[in-house]
Amino acid sequence: MDLRYTEEEEHFRDELGSWLVDVLPSVPPPPADHTDLAARRVYDTDWQRMLHDAGYAGIHWPDEFGGRGSTPTEHLIFLEETERAGAPYVGVNFVGQLHAGPTLIAEATDEQQAAHLAPILKGEHVWCQGFSEPGSGSDLASLSTRAFDDGDDYVVSGQKIWTSFAQVADYCELLVRTDADAPKHGGITWLIMPMDLAGIEIRPIETALGSGEFAEMFLDEVRIPKTNRVGAENDGWRVTMVTFAFERGTAFIGEIISSQRLLADLAQVAQKVTRRSGTGWDDIGIRRQFGQLDAELDALWSLTKRNVSQAQRTGMVGPGGSVFKLAYSDLRKRMADLAEQVLGRAGLSIGESLDLSELDHVGERLYTLTLTIAAGTSEIQRNIVGERLLGLPKER
Ligand SMILES: Cc1cc2nc3c(=O)[nH]c(=O)nc-3n(C[C@H](O)[C@H](O)[C@H](O)COP(=O)(O)OP(=O)(O)OC[C@H]3O[C@@H](n4cnc5c(N)ncnc54)[C@H](O)[C@@H]3O)c2cc1C
Q1: pLDDT of 337-357, one tens digit each?
Q2: For residue 279, which of 288, 269, 289 has the smallest C-alpha distance?
Q3: Atom of ligand 1 nearest to the CA of 375
Q4: Does the C-beta of 162 come closer than 6 Å to ligand 1?
Q5: Which amino acids are annotated catalytic?
Q6: Domain ranges in the chain?
């Protein structure tokens, strides 16, 4: 492992930094109404287009597929610098950019790659993920959405849930059961589903935060051409593992920088909020928690570099990605607990807290709860770490 940046990497950082300074003033603020997904799509895809036109789209995608062909370290620098500069987040492009696109690069046919990769990079196509079902989340291989063979098509019926951004997506990475008699991992197929096909009904799910980015997807005899299958029939579980390696590997890295900023903002608040006999910052117990969290964020940044260094050598992040996600999601919950102690009653109101409008603590608190669930729950990450890193016996 070599954690130092090379001269070329520092040059890349400088060049990107200058570009961000030039363009960010021209980027409008994000849509004020966070429930307006159509506006969110326009905002996120416009930014994706700007990245594309400047040669920064698909930073980690190979250049023969339209990406920049950067090393994992340059990808890390990209995430670090864009987050630090306050550039827009990947948003609705999350699935396409971070795991559907990379899965297509690894597993799809030439025709599928030609049809889908460039539009993802240009922000023309938005993708969603149709994996989870009401009865299949952690035990994803038990999924029951059925695909029947009918000539050139699969005819698909079933229900998906928690499909983020389904309402504004053009394509879905969809898991279906093509063989109900095979052992559960052996009867699954990975399909590309155009979202405008007949028989797809999307019902938004409103969250406790009032946002509607999740949806249930009801599929009623949806005809999906067999040419949309990625990998062999019944080999979808292996393809899914490729998708997960990308989803869990790098998806949360950029959040370390925003967490450091959030912690610094909270420290400012702690110095203003008065308590019984002084400010929050006068409380040595509170200051100790700030120090602890700050040190842990530093450690997570080092772990990130270690994972990136490993990816540079092996092409995959591996179980280190699970260690990162587990530790990071736990840390964010503890940060939210600290905010509660600092803010007291002010922390209970949705919206602006004190004069720091960006510190929506209630929103933040609820968001941290999702981190331990999305992309595989903490218990599942513990199983992965136990079995693959520590060599503990397999779960029965
Ligand atoms: C923000 C967010 C975005 C999401 N976006 C999408 C999306 O776009 N597409 C999509 O398909 N899904 C999405 N999901 C769904 C997500 O993948 C599932 O919620 C997750 O896999 C857990 O599945 P579940 O909700 O069915 O919980 P369950 O699997 O029912 O788990 C319930 C509880 O049991 C525990 N548990 C389960 N199995 C074990 C075990 N073997 N050992 C120990 N404990 C266990 C779990 O850890 C959890 O605490 C999203 C979820 C969130 C929070």
Answers
A1: 999 888 887 777 655 545 544
A2: 269
A3: 17
A4: yes
A5: 247
A6: 7-125, 128-233, 252-389
